C-alpha cells in the first residue's frame, strides 16, 4: 500500500484546495485503485486540470476592473495581485479578458467536470460489483 493511498484514505477537509486534491490523484498508483483504466483516464486529463485549477484560483483571488470604457468593447480587466509579507497584496499588471475568454474557461471547467463525473459513476458501479 503506497503512501499516496494512505493520504487519500484520510478524510479531506472542505478547505482542502483543488490543487492538493489533484496532486493526491496524481500520486495514486495502480495498486491504490479498483480500476486502473479509470485511473489512466483521470491521469490523461490531469495536466489540463492543473492548468484550469491554477487559472480558476487566479480568477477567484485577483481583482476585476469593470471600467465602462472597456466593458462597452467586451473587455474586463483582471488585476493580478502579488503576495507580500504579512498577508498583504499589491496589484501588479492588468490583464484584459473578453467575454469569450471567460466562456472558454467555463467550457474547459465543464469538460473536466464531465470527465471526472464519468469516472466517479464508473467507480460507483465497480464498487457495487466488488
Provide structural commentary.
With 130 residues, this protein is α+β, with helices and mostly antiparallel strands. It has one domain. The chain has five helices and three strands; from the N terminus they run H-H-H-E-H-E-E-H. The chain has helices spanning 3-9, 18-27, 36-61, 68-71, 99-129; strands at residues 63-65, 75-83, 89-98. Strands 1-2-3 form a three-stranded antiparallel sheet. A hairpin with a 5-residue loop joins strand 2 and strand 3. The two termini are 19 Å apart.
Can you summarize this structure?
60% of the residues lie in helices and 17% in strands. Strand 2 and strand 3 (89-98) form a beta hairpin.
Measured as a percent range, the helix fraction is 55-70%
Task: Work out the number of β strands.
Answer: 3
Shape: elongated
CA gyration radius, whole angstroms: 19 Å
Give the count of structural domains. 1
Report the average pLDDT across residues.
Answer: 80
Instruction: Characterize the biggest β-sheet.
Output: 3 strands, antiparallel
SS field, number of helical segments: 5
Order of helices and strands: HHHEHEEH
- Strand neighbour order, sheet with most strands: 1-2-3
For the record, give the distance between the C-alpha atoms at the N and C termini, rounded to a whole number.
19 Å
Helix/strand class:
alpha+beta
